[in-house]
Specification:
By secondary structure, the protein is of the alpha/beta class. The chain is about 45% helix and about 20% strand. The chain contains seven helices and seven strands; from the N terminus they run αααβαβαββαβαββ.
């Protein structure tokens, strides 16, 4: 237990900058919250509409709390949760690990810290709408700042058509990426690719905020073992439990 906590602290001691997930969302939530607070005070102080004013104040406060939850998750909470997930994988240090939709590399570099003799490979299309400042050069710089650049490889690739051979990886990870594919068929393709490039006995671990039930269904259709899904705690909520992240796991049969 003490060793696991030490590993988690090591993983969350980060030096890079990992931006904001979907940066337009907290901006929108915050602006709505401020607007409703302003409407509330206007209704109470100048228009005499006490009930409407109180309702606006309550809703405005609610939206600002949601904004705070979102910002905390994207800047701190998700790192803590992923550190726990990675520490529990029982990696030996020589594995090949793939991060599908790695973005600026938060999960990628944490995995690389556990791979002194292995490799962490990240693929992404580097869209700034999915993560602020998302670019391959930024991810490479973060890997350098974390001291794991020699263990990290980056590739510009679509997770629906991964440029890797069958059975290339011991572990496939993905954090808040697959849901960005708009079509059901495309999301299924990404799941199929994760399984294709996974070695027999390897594990897939996916954290996402939508579509996770379908991920589990598809993994079972593909014959994966120990498929499970559960909601992660408040540290991985993007505004509240209605936008909670769920974790999907599976193991590929030998």
């Amino acid at each position: 237990m003490a060793q696991s906590l030490q590993v988690e602290r090591q993983l969350t001691h980060l030096h890079g900058d990992y931006g904001f997930d979907a940066p337009y969302v907290p901006i929108m939530l915050g602006l709505i919250g401020i607007a409703f607070l302003a409407f509330g005070f206007i209704n109470i102080l100048w228009l005499g509409a006490q009930v409407i004013g109180v309702i606006c104040l309550v809703y405005g406060a609610f939206m600002l709390l949601s904004t705070a939850s979102y910002v905390y998750t994207t800047r701190r909470g998700k790192f803590e949760v992923w550190a726990e997930i990675l520490a529990q994988l029982g990696l030996h240090g020589d594995e090949q690990v793939l991060d599908m939709g790695c973005g600026r590399g938060a999960v990628l570099v944490m995995a690389a810290k556990l791979l002194p003799r292995g490799k962490a490979i990240g693929v992404d299309l580097w869209k700034s709408s999915d993560q602020s400042g998302n670019a391959v050069s930024v991810t490479q710089r973060n890997a350098e700042l974390e001291g794991v650049a020699e263990r990290v490889e980056l590739s510009t690739a679509d997770m629906r058509q991964l440029p890797f051979a069958d059975a290339s990886f011991d572990v496939v990870l993905s954090s808040l990426a697959i849901h960005n594919i708009s079509s059901l068929a495309g999301r299924d393709q990404a799941i199929d690719e994760a399984v294709r490039v996974l070695k027999p006995g390897g594990k897939v671990v996916i954290a996402d905020i939508r579509q996770t039930q379908r991920y589990t269904e598809r993994l079972r259709e593909l014959g994966m073992l120990d498929v499970s899904s559960h909601m992660l705690d408040w540290r991985f909520w993007y505004g509240g439990p209605w936008m909670a992240t769920k974790l999907v796991r599976e193991r590929k049969p030998y």
